[in-house]
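go over this record:
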Amino acid sequence: MTINGKCYFASDFHFGSPNKALSDQREDLIIQWLDLVLQDGKHLFLLGDIFDYWFEYKCVVPKGNYRFLSKLHDIRKKGIEIYYFTGNHDMWVKDYLVKEFGIHIFRNQHEFLINGKKCMVGHGDGLGPGQYGYKLMRWLFSRKFNIWLYGLLPSSSSFAIARFFSKSSRAMTPAYEEHFLGNDKEFTILYINQFLEKQQVDYFVYGHRHLALDIPIQNSRYINTGDWLTLNTYMVMEEEPVLLTFTPPSR
């Protein structure tokens, strides 16, 4: 897919976690950031785990985040394209965002030619060697039959189950902090090195790790957009990608 113009990238908003009050504060901050996209953006890439949990029934979607969804509507009305990559927390996004907002949904990483640069873009989970337990779990959760079975639960029950597991996740505890494992242990970097043996890509752009990274690998670069639980980081790409931290304007 070939696109041109100023592009914004962000991931891991985790709306809904760890509680409504903190999630609402984060939503306010992200809406201010999206105003930047409205000013001069041509494309917006949302790289997964935007919602800490999302499951669509035929007539029901999780309530809340109206202000964020309204801002996405404003962005689309201005003609800015939005590309949404499902993550491990919001893999059950179906067609609501497509029908209501005209957002492009991607369930796997995808190659783009952005302003003349070849970019591999995705959420970034499950890449590289090992992680067999995680990969099996993700495979099971993505099966249509299992999604159908889960959808037989009343929405109140399925949402309660999801909230329980989200709160028990170590990544959602206040003391949790991600650590970079090193170039020889980071699964994503191992994957990129293997990928580059077969095909050249200028930039690999992912989320998922909750770390803001810009790492040269061979003749390419691996950029991780970080998160908005602690970092408030994002990437802008015109001629070259730049990793930035959002600071709201003083009032």
